[in-house]
């Protein structure tokens, strides 16, 4: 049975480096994996009033319900994110908050997570990845261990077609995706 991977891109820009990196990473999953980008651009800003049973005049947006169902049906989630002002982009934090409710049915709980961060500078999105790991740790989401993937100077890694052009980077990201797949297999052997 095929494993379903939800890929969340922490940039809304259509031509973003994060989206290009995500497309490359999707192609590195082994056979038997169906990895797809789950769009987060149209998710309304998180408001607990939507999930508060005491509030009856504010129904949960259908975008919340659909997003939560997609995440819950996943065998794993791959986050590909840039760094914005030393942290994760607001759109990604919004998606995490939406998946964190209702408390009785958290979409992220125990779901294997992979993280690829990048930056146009030399830090490779270090701060965004650490902040993302902090947010996800609350949900007991296992992640592959070392080495983590911080892609620095991301514009120089991609050719004019958006493909990662440096063979060493291709191998590095492929290795990470394969380690992530092994983590998923170990977490969900029956799925």
UniProtKB/TrEMBL annotation:
Domain of life: Bacteria
GO cellular component, one term: cytosol
Gene Ontology molecular function: FMN binding; oxidoreductase activity
Domain NADPH-dependent FMN reductase-like positions: 5-154
A Pfam match: FMN_red
Signal peptide coordinates: none
Record-given protein name: FMN reductase, NADPH-dependent
């Amino acid at each position: 049975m095929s494993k379903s991977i939800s890929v969340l891109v922490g940039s809304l820009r259509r031509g973003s480096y994060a989206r290009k990196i995500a497309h490359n990473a999707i192609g590195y999953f082994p056979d038997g994996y169906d990895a797809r980008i789950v769009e987060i651009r149209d998710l309304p800003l998180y408001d607990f009033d939507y999930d508060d049973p005491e509030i009856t005049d504010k129904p949960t947006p259908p975008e919340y319900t659909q997003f939560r169902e997609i995440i819950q049906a996943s065998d794993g989630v791959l986050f590909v994110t840039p760094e914005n002002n030393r942290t994760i982009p607001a759109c990604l934090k919004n998606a995490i908050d939406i998946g964190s409710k209702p408390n009785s049915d958290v979409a992220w709980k125990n779901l294997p997570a992979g993280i690829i961060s990048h930056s146009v500078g030399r830090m490779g999105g270090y701060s965004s990845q650490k902040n993302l790991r902090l947010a996800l740790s609350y949900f007991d989401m296992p992640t592959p261990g070392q080495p983590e993937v911080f892609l620095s100077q991301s514009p120089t890694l991609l050719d004019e077609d958006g493909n990662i052009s440096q063979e060493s980077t291709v191998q590095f990201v492929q290795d990470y995706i394969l380690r992530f797949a092994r983590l998923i297999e170990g977490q969900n052997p029956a799925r």
